[in-house]
Specification:
By secondary structure, this protein is mainly beta. The chain has one domain. Helix content is about 5%, strand content about 60%. It contains one helix and nine strands, in the order βββββββββα. It has one helix at about 135-140; strands at about 5-15, 25-40, 45-60, 65-80, 85-95, 100, 110-115, 120, 125. Strands 1, 2, 3, 4, 5, 6, 7, 8 and 9 form a nine-stranded antiparallel beta sheet that branches. It starts with a strand and ends with a helix.
Length: about 140
């Protein structure tokens, strides 16, 4: 089977100039949509995921870098092309990206991320779509 994947993301991002720790505070809300289409049959499976995340604290290091502590939650639903629910997943997550302040600690616009963020916590459930069961649920819906 050959399938195409088309996705989109929408979101809102809020920044408060200073949080309780004296550094910028931010929160984001987003919605992601992914549509898998079987090229031969035109059958589709759609995934819609709603998510929210926020910076909970910042750790400043003596070498000009700092680590953001971010937490969030998400809820996603898989639908077939008749809008029947195929499966759901939801959970909480926390991650810690480290950034370099590039020698200008008061100017966040030039900061650079140093490598991938470290995932420190992830919980959740998958009602019908476990990692092992994904293909057994999504692929038949596309055939």
């Amino acid at each position: 089977m050959t399938a195409s994947l088309v996705g989109s993301a929408e979101g809102q991002f809020w920044v408060k100039s200073t949080g309780t720790d004296g550094y910028p505070l931010w929160m984001s809300h987003g919605s992601d949509t992914e549509v898998l289409t079987n090229v031969a049959t035109g059958r589709q499976v759609t995934y819609i995921n709603k998510r929210r995340s926020q910076k909970t604290s910042v750790t400043y290091h003596d070498d000009g870098t700092y680590t953001l502590h971010v937490s969030g939650n998400h809820h996603g639903v898989w639908y077939d092309d008749t809008v029947e629910v195929l499966g759901m997943d939801a959970g909480l997550y926390a991650y810690e990206p480290t950034l370099d302040d590039m020698g200008t600690p008061a100017d966040y616009s030039d900061d650079e991320k140093l490598g991938p963020a470290v995932v420190v916590h992830m919980t959740g459930h998958r009602d019908t779509l476990t990692e092992e069961g994904y293909c057994s649920v999504v692929v038949p819906a596309l055939l």
